[in-house]
Design goal:
Chain lengths: ~130, ~120, ~100
């Protein structure tokens, strides 16, 4: 089956991101496809490549990046929610003349339409709320 | 975009204390703009999103309730509110900003089952 | 038929309460994260015999284990791991997340 996951919780603030990542791994292990990961609300913080947890701790953003790269998953961060919370790519950094960017490798910034598209093109859409 | 799937947005959070109400409304407007078959349900503290006389100007927030009438402009007619949630908060349909269909939890139970996709906020 | 997931402790908010109010008989209810506290013998006792006979209750093993609850689960609640979580989403048509 085709799955899409909507992730609304920031890493460390709640368990939502961990639960979603564990679910995503289990879904692939069962032979399913992931059509899209959509990060919205505080979930956009999962895409920050500036998160620097202590070395012996679970690095959730890094685990997402590895997961997305290893399985070539479409991972979309809502651009409005991301900009609002300081998750920017190079293009947005230049556009708003900010001092840096932090969108992790494998993630793309795009519009909310991608959530609606994921909902209509997947067999299952599951919300992971905080 | 496939339009045949039905989407129900389920709102259960009060406005302003978190971003859920505002960002959920954005999803509703986008889905409606795409011509998607869409319903929106308000229950639990989500019913407070519809309350009249909201003025968050002194807490530095936008009044998201002012955007609610746009749903009608986008032809979103299926707006439901759970009767039990209203009753528990001593509210009725006259306290709400936009026309809604007040339905029982039993009817909501059936409404949820009819959907292809549930978006939870 | 819907799979409901709940992730809040029943002592913290009304997510499980609301879920039970609109859940159809024979639907699945999966307790995850802090909602696994509801799978134990709790003072507020939301998971009555009647609820357990009406709906299929599941709880996520890693979340129970993390909280020291594996030996405290009420009879009638079925334990699943993440593979089982995915399986449930295959069996049921949609997922309603209460959080």
């Amino acid at each position: 089956m085709k799955y899409s996951l909507a992730i609304y919780g920031a890493p460390y603030a709640s368990q939502a991101a961990d639960t979603a990542l564990n679910f995503a791994n289990a879904a692939l292990s069962r032979g399913h496809k992931i059509y899209r990961l959509f990060f919205y609300l505080d979930g956009v913080h999962n895409a920050s490549n500036l998160a620097t947890p202590p070395q012996d701790e679970n690095d959730i953003p890094a685990r997402w990046r590895e997961f997305i790269e290893a399985h070539q998953i479409d991972a979309v961060v809502c651009i409005a929610a991301g900009l609002r919370r300081g998750v920017l790519d190079e293009v947005e950094q230049a556009r708003y003349e900010k001092t840096g960017n932090n969108l992790g490798k494998g993630f793309t910034l795009s519009g909310l339409g991608q959530l609606v598209d994921a909902a209509t093109h997947s067999d299952r859409l599951i919300s992971f709320g905080a | 975009m496939s339009h045949d799937k039905s989407i129900l947005i389920v709102n259960r959070k009060a406005p302003y204390g978190s971003a859920f109400a505002k960002e959920s409304l954005d999803v509703g407007l986008i889905a409606a703009a795409f011509g998607q078959k869409l319903g929106i349900l308000f229950m639990d503290d989500g019913v407070y999103q519809l309350l009249k006389h909201q003025d968050p100007s002194e807490i530095q927030q936008k009044n998201s309730s002012q955007t609610l009438p746009m749903l009608e402009m986008y032809d979103v007619k299926d707006i439901y509110v759970e009767a039990e949630s209203l009753q528990a908060r001593n509210l009725d349909a006259a306290d709400l900003l936009i026309p809604v269909e007040v339905i029982s939890s039993q009817a909501i139970s059936e409404l949820l089952e009819q959907q292809d996709i549930l978006l939870n906020f | 038929m819907i799979l409901h997931t709940v992730n809040k402790s029943p002592f913290q908010d009304n997510s499980l309460d609301s879920c039970l109010r609109v859940a159809q008989p024979d639907c699945g209810i999966l307790l995850i994260e802090d909602a696994v506290y509801a799978a134990t013998e709790t003072a507020n006792g939301l998971l009555t015999e009647q609820v357990l006979s009406l709906h299929k209750l599941y709880a996520l093993i890693p979340d129970l284990k993390a909280r020291g609850l594996l030996e405290r689960v009420k009879p009638g609640v079925e334990l699943v791991d993440y593979d089982g979580f995915v399986q449930l989403t295959e069996q049921y048509d949609t997922v309603q997340s209460w959080y």
